[in-house]
Write a structure and sequence with these properties.
13 strands; 5 helices; about 250 residues; single chain
């Protein structure tokens, strides 16, 4: 999710609110037929939502797959964001919110003939656009597969845990989800600590075709630098944050 200034807004009714995890919800909107083309989106895009009765707005990533006909966003309630708190605690089904059309370029081009391995690293609420991208890619490209590393503080803070498990069941060996916990002992099949993230990324280097990074900026930049230093092409690393020009890495003496 990002903060910022949005353009035009349209009134959309809240159709559903689903508890995702500790301090996180998903909000789905009822998009009328007259606005269906306006709110058609590409996987990984976001919308801006205005807090009721204010001019405050915030960008939230769409969590459904492109072409689903569902406009749904993930909202993390913690972190001090005023708009997020209002949406999570004061908005109910049937309320009308101001929402801007989808925007953003955090995605890769898809084609049914592709056979690619998409590797994603998502930190916290960064899993929201990743969920949209991965689910769209698996539906669009029958020969592609995806591996997703979800980084969270605790097990209870994992957003979309149930939906990720459902996708794993649906796609079998075409999708693998690995969890990393930074403030809690990991359970069977998961990893613990930031060092595990770096090691996991290095293990993925030989097989990954495209990398998708989303989460806290410091995490995204650290992983991006690790990948580029490991020989990954700049064009193969996709992020949702503005990154500085990378300084050349000195050759070993």
């Amino acid at each position: 999710m990002r903060g910022g200034v949005a353009g035009a807004f349209y009134e959309l009714k809240v159709q559903e609110i689903t508890r995702l995890a500790e301090s996180a919800v998903a909000i789905g909107f009822d998009v009328p037929e007259s606005l269906s083309s306006t709110f058609d989106f590409v996987q990984g895009q976001h919308v801006a939502v205005r807090a009721p009765g204010t001019t405050d707005c915030r960008f939230f990533s769409i969590c459904t797959f492109a072409g689903s006909g569902r406009l749904r966003i993930g909202v993390r309630l913690g972190g001090g964001g005023r708009v997020s708190r209002v949406l999570g605690h004061s908005v109910g089904v049937g309320d009308v919110l101001d929402v801007s059309p989808p925007a953003g370029a955090f995605h890769t081009a898809l084609h049914p003939a592709n056979s690619r391995h998409y590797v994603a690293v998502a930190g916290g609420s960064g899993v929201t656009p990743i969920l949209s991208i991965v689910s769209t890619a698996l539906r669009t490209e029958p020969m592609s597969r995806a591996t997703l590393l979800c980084c969270n503080r605790t097990r209870d803070s994992i957003m979309f845990a149930d939906e990720l498990r459902a996708l794993e069941r649906e796609y079998g060996d075409r999708l693998r989800v690995v969890h990393v916990l930074t403030r809690e002992r990991a359970w069977s099949g998961t990893l613990t600590g930031r060092a595990a993230v770096r090691e996991w990324c290095r293990d993925m280097l030989p097989s990954a075709d495209d990398w998708l990074l989303c989460g806290p900026p410091e995490m995204v930049l650290e992983v991006r630098e690790l990948l580029l230093s490991g020989g990954v092409s700049l064009d193969a690393v996709h992020t949702d944050v503005t990154v500085p020009t990378r300084r050349p890495v000195a050759s070993p003496q």
